[in-house]
Amino acid sequence: MTAHEIIIRPIVSERSYSAMEENKYTFEVAKDANKFQIKDAVEEIFGVKVVRVNTLNVKPKTKRVRYVAGKTRSWKKAVVTVAEGQTIEVFGTQA
């Protein structure tokens, strides 16, 4: 698996945005990726030193559309802590 297959997208929410002040960044990752693979992928893509990786599996929620009940998809989330003084540019540089 390549680094871009492991890191699917950054998660940008109020909670994850406030955690960026503590050098913690949240990503959606491949379900079969482990912590070591996630660490290597973030270091390769963003060029930062990763201190810690916390992962969790997000369970599906039940949703209804009129009379039909279904479920949202399940996915894996990783909270990556980078070294002090380093940042990841989530929104990219704006011209």
Automatic annotation (TrEMBL):
Q: Which residues form a coiled coil?
A: none
UniProt keyword list: Ribonucleoprotein, Ribosomal protein, RNA-binding, rRNA-binding
- Describe the task this protein carries out: One of the early assembly proteins it binds 23S rRNA. One of the proteins that surrounds the polypeptide exit tunnel on the outside of the ribosome. Forms the main docking site for trigger factor binding to the ribosome.
HAMAP family noted in UniProt: Ribosomal_uL23_B
Question: What interactions and quaternary structure are annotated?
Answer: Part of the 50S ribosomal subunit. Contacts protein L29, and trigger factor when it is bound to the ribosome.
Which family is annotated?
Belongs to the universal ribosomal protein uL23 family.
Q: What is this protein called?
A: Large ribosomal subunit protein uL23
State the organism of origin. Answer: Collinsella stercoris DSM 13279
Gene name as annotated: rplW
